[in-house]
Amino acid sequence: MTMRVVIVDDQAMVRAGFAALLNAQSDIDVVGEAPDGAQGVELSRRTHPDVVLMDVRMPEMDGLEAARRLLSPPPGVTHRPRVLMLTTFDVDDYVYEALRAGASGFLLKDAPPADLIAAVRVVAAGDALLAPSVTRRLIADFARQRPAARGRPALRLKALTERETEVLTLVARGRSNTEIARTLVLAEQTVKTHVSRVLTKLDLRDRAQAVVFAYESGLVAPGE
Questions:
Q1: Which of 18, 75, 122, 213 is the most exposed place for a label (fewest CB within 10 A)?
Q2: Domain spanning 148-217: which CATH class is it, in words?
Q3: pLDDT tens figures, 137-149
């Protein structure tokens, strides 16, 4: 199945380069480009892409606000694409807030072409882009600056079984399903089931939000 992609970036050359690279893939179709967040939201509402590549810093409307509007649409709007943030910085509070809003990860603009293509495929498949561990480090940096949230986030952890809590902890530390299976001596399919149950019980969109939640609830501490 062909993955539909929208590119939102205020630099025309960046948009053109990404579009040419992605359109050269047999399973990816770039269905539109936009120079700012507001136009990106409008374009996405019309074209219903699977993935939106969203620059963080843009005029008119930045990528954070655009991601919020796409991932928390108004009543009557049912389409919610996956959002992959693009940034020139590996530590950026806008990206952190975008992950909290439901973005599926982020990619540095100077990443190799193969990484961009792989990132689109990973996010389109419904997973979160947490490797290499830049996203994890970003979340840890901001968690270190903020006290762990008490009250409701921590209470929500009580809905998890002991095994599900172990799985969430390892997800937050950036372990893949294969690595979690090896650590806990489980079948990989069993790990996938546990991850799915964690996301459902905590009302989280994907692994990126699970990592944010694990740090903000105090389940995982920066530096562990």
A1: 75
A2: mainly alpha
A3: 666 666 666 555 5
